[in-house]
């Protein structure tokens, strides 16, 4: 099973652009968010295998640590619930 951080598209790209102080183009942010996927590696553990500067900036703005490679489903759900606008 593969989960995708496409869920974070619930964010308004315009809002993210403002929060990240227009450091990156909208196209680049969308590209990075699309690449930010995870794969179930064990019962409750998911591996995130993509991270870049754009995700770092979005993470700082949204208070999400995209650099964490292994997460539980509970951690993923918590991130999603905390970032809903």
What does this structure look like?
It is a single chain. The chain has 85 residues and is of the alpha+beta class. It has 4 helices and 4 strands. It has helices spanning 13-19, 26-35, 53-62, 73-83; strands spanning 2-4, 37-42, 45-48, 70-72. It has a 4-stranded antiparallel beta sheet. The termini are far apart. The model has no long low-confidence stretch (mean pLDDT 78).
How is the topology of this model organized?
Blueprint: E1 2-4, H1 13-19, H2 26-35, E2 37-42, E3 45-48, H3 53-62, E4 70-72, H4 73-83
Antiparallel strand pairs: 1-2, 2-3, 3-4
Strand order of the largest sheet: 1-2-3-4
Please tell me how large the radius of gyration is: 12 Å
Low-confidence stretches: none
Report the biggest beta sheet as strand number plus sense, adding barrel if it closes.
Answer: 4 strands, antiparallel
Q: What is the number of beta strands?
A: 4
